[in-house]
Design a protein that fits this description.
By secondary structure, this protein is mostly helical. Helix content is 80%, strand content 1%. It contains 18 helices and two strands. The N and C termini lie close together (7 Å).
Length: 362
């Protein structure tokens, strides 16, 4: 029997399944408790964050920002690459996503706390008429748009290569080494931190890796959370109530990164017998990552340029008027749908699409 198949079987135990269920249950329990605490904090009060009411609706927004962030290409690439290596070495891999998300979100929680404590500065930054607000608004949008464009292009290039591998695999010409090479090249930060990723030998080692990804602070979702925290502090919301926002962000990101890691662990165990399943999942998630990054970048770019070129805004009013919060919910729903459809597709036709490779020691 091949070493990789033996290793993956040794890494799969009933204890792993039970611990994953307990971990997910604990995250859900913390989420429910956080929403209950938020509802209690605002009961009998009317706090505001900018033009929004500070309440459970804003908590849901923070939670969905975390969910959306869990499906960033760098998250997927880091968890995916580490899961594949852990399984090949016979190491437990089901909880890699949890530790990565916990490390990443710890940076967001700390920065949100610092932003909330700096309420006076936050009030200046959230004042639409202040020069600091206008400059930082343009700068932040420009940086996030450039990053998202780069991310989208990198994912499109990876998507093209994965699609070619998918077609080859359907013809019975699967190249495992080539697929590993393509998957290793996804994600900007995962490329920069590849050596550190390769040095991880325990699931908790992904905590410092996630911490480094968080220090990159490269997504508009995290900036949005900090703005909410700062604006809330400036309007008199208690600091402990404000910290429920990054906690809910953490719950959303941790839950879906945990599920993603557990799903990838199961998917790669199947992939040693049916590689097409693995390719199909990565094809789906990479394509959606590219589409999401380019869509948000396009909205940001047109909105930014429309301020200086009014004709552009008149030519593309539907694009300028898109609410990015709505886009975030849509992206999260699309990823969840793609995740479930990939699983159902594999269960229905995956085994017939590509015959398993014969065991040389059988």
């Amino acid at each position: 029997m091949p070493r990789t198949e033996t290793a993956t079987r040794s890494a799969r135990t009933p204890t792993t399944h039970r611990s994953t269920i307990l971990l997910v249950s604990a995250i859900v329990a913390v989420t429910v408790a956080a929403f209950a605490a938020l509802a209690g904090a605002v009961s009998g009060h009317r706090f505001s964050v900018g033009a929004q009411v500070f309440g459970t609706g804003l908590g849901l927004t923070a939670y969905m920002l975390g969910v959306r962030h869990a499906f960033d290409a760098d998250h997927i690439a880091a968890i995916d690459n580490t899961t594949r290596r852990f399984l090949a070495e016979g190491r437990p891999s089901a909880h890699l996503g949890f530790w990565f998300a916990l490390g990443h979100s710890s940076v967001v929680v700390l920065l949100s706390l610092l932003t909330a404590l700096g309420a006076r500065m936050a009030s200046r930054l959230t004042d639409d008429s202040s020069a600091a607000h206008q400059v930082l608004g343009v700068l932040g949008t420009s940086v996030s748009t450039a990053f998202l464009l780069l991310l989208g292009v990198l994912n499109l290039l990876a998507l093209r290569r994965i699609a070619a591998l998918y077609r080859s695999a359907r013809r019975g010409e699967h190249d495992e080494a080539r697929l590993d090479e393509v998957l290793d090249d996804r994600g900007l930060l995962s490329r920069l931190l590849r050596r550190l990723t390769a040095s991880t030998t325990r699931p908790w080692h992904l905590f410092p890796l996630g911490l480094l990804f968080g220090l990159g602070f490269d997504t508009a979702t995290e900036v949005s959370l900090l703005v909410m925290s700062g604006a809330g502090a400036a309007s008199g919301v208690p600091w402990w109530a404000l910290m429920l926002l990054p906690l809910l962000f953490t719950c959303g990101m941790t839950l879906f990164d945990t599920l993603d890691g557990a799903f990838m662990s199961a998917a790669y165990r199947w992939a040693f017998v049916h590689p097409l399943r693995r390719i199909h999942y990565n094809l789906t998630t990479t394509g959606l990552s590219a589409a999401a990054a380019l869509l948000v970048a396009a909205v940001n770019l047109v909105t930014l340029l429309a301020d200086g070129v009014p004709a552009l805004g008149r030519a593309l009013p539907w694009l300028v008027g898109i609410d990015l919060n709505t886009v975030g919910y849509l992206i999260g729903a699309l990823f969840l749908t793609a995740w479930l459809s990939s699983f159902l597709h594999w269960k229905a036709v995956g085994g017939r699409a590509l015959a398993p490779s014969p065991d040389p020691e059988a």
